[in-house]
């Protein structure tokens, strides 16, 4: 390279390459774009509450509401009309039903099951993903049964399989254990198979990290104020990646059909690694805290909220995710569908 740069040397320096040629015009950028985003990439999480025609605000998630079952059915219709393939349901269980044993988790008439069957019969064309974990039913906000301050593994799995079974009966197409107990995928698979639900799929929350980005969700389902301590004895340490690969391997061995990485944006390296090392659909969850950051920064005028939303969603595709669970699903789908 010449010691002193002169403009006429440029052609030689570049060797004929000018990367900006492919960025000059909109049509050229359209032509060479590597990844695409469509409404079929989204899974829309809904928070379900008791009542009729009820909607309540979630302070930390502006734009997201908890909905009674009838309004969830309406939301499902809107999602289906936009080509969103599936919903993920989370119940906000009434306080008086939250117990140490979390028995409400396997009550066939619980809020979750009523929401599943109402949506399944009214909007059969949309897929229904049922979260299985005890924090939505337990008195202490932990995902497992607790004894002497310890989160019990095998005892928790026993409750979870019963919960998965009532959900499958109510119409869940995909069971999504979000608890991180060991062995839950195998136990749920075996229970579904013997119960006649061999076609019900399992999307495992496989690489779920102990994260502070779940804060707004815990307010949404009403578990946050109950939770003492943290979830670090079962959710992954955010300093690790190999550990996540071992979790994926084991969940696939146990019969998971799909795996999930959670949170999303801060963990795109994990999404990419799973995508590169395993031949299985990998999903990412853009969690409540990530949603809140984009919404609140938008409201503060710090960023262009809609543009940041679309950029963040494309980032999941770029990292190799097959799809993304996102509270932006309906809004983003409407933009994409014009
Ligand atoms: C509970 C569960 C959590 C989320 C999904 N399922 C919270 C937690 O593990 O504490 C978080 C989702 C979000 O933050 O959007 N088992």
Give a verbal description of the structure.
By secondary structure, this protein is an alpha/beta fold. 38% of the residues lie in helices and 17% in strands. It is built from 12 helices and 12 strands. It has an 8-stranded parallel beta barrel with strand order 1-4-5-8-9-10-11-12, surrounded by 9 helices. A two-stranded antiparallel sheet has the order 6-7. Strand 4, helix 4 (111-122) and strand 5 form a beta-alpha-beta unit. It is globular. The structure holds ligand PBG. The site of ligand PBG has 12 residues, from helix 7. Ligand PBG is lined by residues 131, 133, 135, 143, 178-179, 214, 217-218, 231, 287-288.
Characteristics of this structure?
17% strand, alpha/beta, two-stranded antiparallel sheet, 338 residues, single chain, binds ligand PBG, 12 strands, 8-stranded parallel beta barrel, globular
Proportion in β-strands: 15-25%
Structural class label: alpha/beta
**Major β-sheet annotation:** 8 strands, parallel, barrel
Outline, from the CA principal axes? globular
Order of helices and strands: HHEEEHEHEEEHEHEHHEHEHHEH
End-to-end Cα distance: 50 Å
> Going across the major beta sheet, what is the strand order?
1-4-5-8-9-10-11-12
Q: What percentage of residues falls in helices of 4 or more residues? A: 25-40%
What would the average pLDDT be, to the nearest integer? 96
Radius of gyration: 22 Å
Small molecules bound in the structure, each named once: ligand PBG
List low-confidence stretches: none
- By DSSP (H or I, 4+ residues per run), the number of helices equals 12
Tell how many strands the DSSP assignment holds: 12
């Amino acid at each position: 390279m010449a010691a002193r740069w002169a403009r006429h040397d440029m052609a030689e320096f570049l060797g004929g390459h000018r990367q900006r040629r492919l960025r000059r015009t909109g049509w050229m950028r359209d032509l060479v774009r590597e990844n695409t985003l469509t409404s079929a990439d989204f899974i829309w999480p809904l928070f379900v509450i008791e009542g009729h025609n009820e909607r309540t605000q979630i302070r930390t998630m502006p734009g997201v509401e908890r909905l009674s079952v009838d309004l969830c059915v309406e939301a499902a219709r809107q999602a289906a009309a936009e080509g969103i393939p599936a919903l993920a349901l989370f119940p906000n269980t009434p306080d008086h039903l939250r117990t140490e044993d979390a028995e409400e988790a396997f009550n066939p008439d619980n809020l979750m099951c009523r929401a599943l069957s109402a949506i399944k019969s009214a909007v059969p064309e949309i897929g229904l993903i049922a979260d299985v974990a005890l924090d939505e039913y337990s008195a202490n906000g932990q995902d497992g049964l607790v004894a002497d301050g310890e989160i019990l593994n095998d005892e928790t799995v026993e409750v979870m399989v019963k919960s998965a079974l009532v959900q499958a009966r109510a119409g869940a197409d995909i069971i999504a254990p979000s608890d991180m107990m060991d062995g839950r995928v195998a136990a749920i698979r075996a229970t579904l198979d013997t119960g006649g639900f061999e076609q019900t799929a399992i999307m495992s929350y496989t690489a779920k990290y102990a994260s502070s980005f779940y804060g707004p969700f815990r307010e949404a389902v009403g578990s946050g104020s109950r939770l003492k301590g943290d979830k670090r004895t079962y959710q992954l340490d955010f300093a690790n990646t190999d550990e996540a690969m071992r979790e994926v391997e084991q969940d696939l061995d146990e019969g998971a059909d799909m795996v999930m990485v959670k949170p999303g944006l801060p963990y795109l390296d994990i999404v990419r690694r799973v995508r590169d090392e395993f031949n299985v659909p990998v999903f990412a969850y853009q969690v409540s805290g990530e949603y809140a950051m984009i919404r609140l920064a938008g409201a503060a005028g710090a960023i262009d909220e809609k543009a940041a939303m679309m950029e963040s969603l494309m980032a999941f595709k770029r990292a190799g995710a097959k799809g993304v669970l996102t509270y932006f699903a309906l809004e983003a789908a409407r933009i994409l569908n014009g």
